[in-house]
Design brief:
With 112 residues, the chain is an alpha+beta fold. It has helices at 4-9, 57-73; strands spanning 17-20, 24-28, 36-42, 80-83, 99-103. The chain has a five-stranded antiparallel β-sheet with strand order 1-2-3-5-4, covered by helices on one side.
Amino acid sequence: MDCLFCAIINGDIPSKKVYEDDKCYAFLDINPQAPVHCLIVPKVHIASLDEICPKCAETIAHILATIPKIAKDLSLGDGYRVVTNVGENGCQSVKHLHFHILGGKKLSESMA
């Protein structure tokens, strides 16, 4: 499987790690869309939210519980946005589920 994020998780491609545990890996985005732009990915390959199933729900719940800890470590106490893109029309560029943590400034109210 040629997956960019799997290669990053495996250490084959360098990244600026922000957080890691047995279920997820978080790193800074190389093309930031905000002053703080971090990605958090499950270590197991899940292509997108469309593939969420009862078997992987525990991993997703763990990631969602970890996001506030990462946001705190990134000094995002004034607020942040969490986004995931799904499919072509959702502009999902890497087919490995990932959540964007964006912050460090007042973000636009527009989501489109």
